[in-house]
Amino acid sequence: MPLIDSRHILPFFLVAAATVSSAQARKNPAAGPAAAEHAASLAENGHCTEALPLLKKSIRQVTDKDLKKRIGLDGIHCAMTHNAPYDSLTFLEVLAREFPRDPEVLYNATHAFSDLSLRTSQDLAREAPFSYQVHLLNAEALEVQQKWDDAAIEYRRILEINPFQPGVHARLGRALISKPQPTPTDVEQAKKNFEEELEIDPKNAAAEYVLGELARQASDLSAAIRHYSRATKLDTTFGEAFLGLGTSLVSAKRFSEAIPPLETYEKLAPDSPSGHFQLALAYTGVGRKEDANREAALQRQSAENLEQIKRRAADALLKQQSPPPEAQAPEQPK
Predict the structure, then answer these.
(1) How far out from the chain centre does Cα 27 lie?
(2) Which residues, other chains included, contact 70 with Cβ-Cβ below 8 Å and sequence gap of 6+?
(3) Are 157 and 129 in contact (CB under 8 A)?
(4) CA distance readout (Å), 143 to 1, 129, 214, 297
């Protein structure tokens, strides 16, 4: 039999521990809201160097939502303006989790990530100026600016460094066919690059899909069906590949074969008018009139919904561009 029954002594230790913790909290204000307020005040009054470690500690301890948001935003500002950019990730993580829809948080996060991206790209250019990654970054920036020829030049430079670099042949092909009016030579070169990409990476569903698109545009339905089918097997969530496969099968009048991929696409993109339209054609082709009528009705409804969304977006844009009534010039007296 034990000398002391733990059931009697355990409450004593729990009370004692709580008393000690309470006393330590009073002696150490860094554990409470007062410390968080102090840290925020330091940051907001220009003492970021002193504030930053306190803010990093407080952001995970504070429970008050308004104070947590304030600490997070102050922390981002101090980190980004006092040569500690990667410290901002601590605050960004908490803010993203706690305030995922807050416009002020999203705005500040946009700027922080943009600055981090810029700093990191500058580090890359400084530390490895002749690496293929520098060319890759340049090409991506040129694509954003829609400078397709310049982007293609950068991708070709990468292939000169390493002709077997995964993904680059596909990117070069994409740049070639993204021009407003690609020439037949551009299209042929793009096709060759996507084929070379598949030799390097046979599991590249996107390359299979683009080859399917190019074949369909060239009216080569058998090649289109082959490439689309491979893409759907490589990526079972690739909605556009299922649509391309179903559409090509409908065009080839292989209606019964078209139904499964189109039904899959409809599940992946239930609001797409194109999916309903193609499925209506496939159902009609196999004599399923009731199903075809249902899909035709869904196609009309989804098209109307899409048009309404476009109108609302256009109206909102016009309102943003129009000056407020008080800013308009007063009418001249007659």
Answers:
(1) 46
(2) 40
(3) no
(4) 79, 20, 20, 39
Task: Tell me how far apart the alpha carbons of residues 139 and 175 are, in angstroms, rounded to a whole number.
Answer: 9
Place of tokens 């002193």: 50
- pTM score: 0.72
The answer to whether residues 112 and 80 touch, using CB atoms and an 8 Å cutoff, is yes
User: Using CA atoms, how far apart are residues 75 and 67, in angstroms rounded to an integer?
Assistant: 12
Q: Which contacts (CB < 8 Å, 24+ apart) does range 138-141 have?
A: 139/171, 139/175
Q: Which residues contact 224 (CB under 8 A, 6 or more apart)?
A: 212, 213, 215, 216, 244, 248
For residues 53 and 114, give the distance between their C-alpha atoms in angstroms, rounded to a whole number.
Answer: 23
The whole-angstrom separation of Cα 224 and Cα 214 is 8
* Residue 128 phi, psi dihedral angles, 5° rounding: -140, 65
pLDDT tens per residue across span 5-24 = 444 434 433 334 334 344 44
Any idea where the domains of the chain sit in the sequence? 30-125, 128-183
Report whether 239 contacts 269 (CB < 8 A). yes
Confirm if 135 and 157 have CB atoms less than 8 A apart.
yes
Read off the pLDDT of residues 211-269 as tens digits, 9 standing for 90 and up: 999 999 999 999 999 999 999 999 999 999 999 999 999 999 999 999 999 999 999 99
Could you tell me which of 130, 138, 200 has the C-alpha nearest to residue 160? 130
Q: In this structure, what token pair is assigned to residue 187?
A: 């299209």
Render pLDDT for 30-84 as a digit per residue (tens, 0 to 9). 447 899 999 999 999 999 999 999 999 999 999 999 999 999 999 999 999 999 9
CB 201 within 8 A of CB 225: no
**For the range 41-45, what are the long-range contacts, defined as Cβ-Cβ under 8 Å and sequence gap of 24 or more?**
43/74, 43/75, 43/77, 43/78, 44/74
